[in-house]
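W.,

You were right to be curious about this one. When I first looked at the sequence I had no strong expectations either way, so I just let the prediction run and decided to look at it fresh. Below is the sequence, 67 residues in total, followed by the output.
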Amino acid sequence: MNQSTTRIISLREVLSRTSMSRSAVYALQKQGEFPKSVSITERRVGFVESEIDDWLKAKIESSRKEA
């Protein structure tokens, strides 16, 4: 049986993985060009790890096509 696990990662981990600043992440979200965060509690948000991974893969593929 294949079990799928959804993992929520912190903004800190997203910033580390993408090498972007907090303001850049939120600006891209506002433009609809970055995965939306998920509200975990009133004061805490996270990101779906697979969505961040997919976004990164798309950016890599796009940059390879341009080169």
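Here's what jumped out at me. The helical segments are 11-18, 22-30, 49-66. And, maybe more interesting for your project: Residues 49-66 form the longest helix (18 residues).

Coffee later to discuss?

I.
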